[in-house]
Design a protein that fits this description.
This protein is an all-alpha fold. The chain is built from 10 helices and 2 strands; from the N terminus they run αααααββααααα. It has one domain. A hairpin with a 2-residue loop joins strand 1 and strand 2. The longest helix has 31 residues.
Length: 222
């Protein structure tokens, strides 16, 4: 609200009597009451998470996951992830972040995301939005898929890309909890390091020929 202080000051110009003061005081008291309730809930969550301190610490090494998000993940899947989910694919499917499959007569068509644990889905989507604000593998993954599906001007492209990141995060969560090892950052140049130069040259050459309608001949640089 700090950016709106001038507008708020203008809005308060005019009559401000005892009734307005009373209503403001009631609103402020209500806010204080809500903050006190949230404080008590945070304290209870912290107390209940004490037996899972190690697992929570591992989850917090993943970009986009903080203390409350870690508590939310553990409350849904537990700390001993192998007990219920033998591998990351089972966990992703149960969460509903596993891509759907719509195949008919050998042709693949876009499919809706599978139904799953709605609480964990929404939590991981929020974590994904937080993760892509930080340089690293997850941000690079997001950028790669946004550009593949239409660029940053497309809301659909960004929505689909963030679901890819959320799926990647649930896979990372399984491996972190299953191995007991913290998240190892792959780096924002992960995809560049994995790219096959010859294959990339062929792809870009074919694209240039398709756009220009001309035959492209490559020569060695001097």
């Amino acid at each position: 609200m700090r950016k709106k202080i001038p507008d708020l000051s203008m809005a308060l110009e005019g009559r401000f009597g005892d009734h307005h003061a009373l209503m403001c005081r009631l609103h402020l008291d209500h806010i204080d009451h809500l903050e006190a309730m949230l404080g008590k809930l945070d304290a209870q969550i912290e107390e209940m998470m004490e037996p899972f301190r190690a697992a929570g610490g591992l989850l917090r090494t993943i970009p986009g996951i903080g203390p409350l998000a870690a508590a939310g993940v553990i409350s849904e899947i537990g700390a001993d992830v192998r007990e219920y989910f033998p591998d990351a694919a089972h966990l992703a499917s149960w969460t509903g972040l596993c891509p759907g499959n719509n195949e008919s007569a050998g042709k693949h068509r876009p499919a809706r995301r599978r139904k799953g644990n709605e609480h964990l889905q929404s939590l991981l989507v929020e974590c994904a939005w937080s993760a892509v604000r930080h340089d690293g593998y997850l941000k690079s993954l997001y950028h790669r898929h946004v550009m593949r599906w239409g660029g940053y001007r497309s809301k659909l492209a960004k929505k689909k890309a963030i679901m890819v990141v959320a799926h990647a995060m649930i896979v990372i969560i399984w491996h972190v909890l299953a191995t007991g090892k913290p998240y190892a950052e792959l780096g924002d140049d992960y995809f560049d390091r994995r790219a096959d130069p010859e294959r990339e040259i062929a792809r870009l050459t074919a694209r240039l020929e398709a756009v220009s309608g001309r035959h492209v001949v490559l020569e060695e640089a001097a």
